[in-house]
Amino acid sequence: LLKLRLEVSSLSSAYSTKIKGGNYALGLQLPSQTVARAMSSLGGATPPYTTLAISRPTESITHVELHRPEKRNAMNSAFWSEMVTCFNELSEDAQCRVVVVSGAGKLFTAGIDLMDMMNSVLQPEGDDTARISWGIKKKIKKLQETFSVIEKCPKPVVVAIHGACVGAGVDMITACDIRLCTQDAWFQVKEVDIGLAADVGTLQRLPKVIGSQSLVNELALTARKMYADEAKSSGLVSRVFADKEAMMAGALEIAGEIAGRSPVAVQGTKINLIYARNHSVADGLDYIATWNMSMLQTEDLMKSAQAALEKKSPKTKTYSKL
Ligand SMILES: CCC/C=C/C=C/C(=O)SCCNC(=O)CCNC(=O)[C@H](O)C(C)(C)COP(=O)(O)OP(=O)(O)OC[C@H]1O[C@@H](n2cnc3c(N)ncnc32)[C@H](O)[C@@H]1OP(=O)(O)O
Question: Where are the alpha helices (DSSP H) in the chain?
Fold first, then answer.
């Protein structure tokens, strides 16, 4: 569907399409400042989505914008399923080589929609405790999939956070591969404040992201806000930018670096990094040996090696879609 939408919109004006008030060049190189401005959407969500705005700032980069700015991008029931559809499509879309995620409006996200979502979680159905519990577990597993699809997507996901990232927002960003933020950003593992233990990823992934278990414990047990500088020093984000415009330009630059390289190398790297994080060194080494016994046979290797011998960037070569 995503591919179809993009094809239709690219047909409507050759090589250039206007989505949600911004000019997006397909197959053309735009200066990153221009693209960064274009990435800040003015319109609404992109149908059939109601909470996401999808655009293509370049041919191989997809921008997924959380788009409920009037509700601070709070995650309602539509969002929880739209993310799964969106990322499953991106996983299959060979045109897309890297994804950038950001939030529209004043801040990145206020976390779970407390009006819409809590009702469905707090009104379980079932004839007895066993059946009610079974149903709740199924619901939680389904919600977990909303962010696990980011990790399962073989294309690297760069997330750009401005303003605030609350509750489920932290669950979400810990499933992303590269995290950037603005100087005004703050992060809050808020779940304990609404009476629950975070259950959609933070408690499992944040300790793998931040080196200090003590800091993770403190953040999760007290729900205190962590500001940009501490997010950087603790390793939650890798870069802090002065404002959103600079961050989006930076996100796009990083995405461009990734998109220009061999997708066989890039996707294999993401998959093996995640595997290595979840397994022993010995298991990880075995996994990559099995992985590369087929992937080393790619023509991309010769092309990239040739570029290195010519003292050129691997980006000077063209790699087939994967
Ligand atoms: C089994 C479940 C698994 C998942 C669990 C996840 C848990 C969590 O995510 S816990 C965190 C929940 N979120 C919060 O507690 C944040 C609540 N919001 C705020 O504190 C503030 O809105 C915020 C500091 C983020 C921004 O403040 P600001 O002054 O900029 O905006 P507001 O005027 O407060 O809000 C504007 C409109 O947005 C609505 N809204 C904001 N957050 C939420 C939310 N989380 N859920 C639903 N709606 C939200 C707010 O009501 C305003 O709407 P309106 O009055 O219609 O203008």
Answer: 2-12, 32-39, 77-92, 116-122, 129-152, 168-173, 202-209, 213-222, 228-234, 244-259, 263-278, 281-295, 299-309
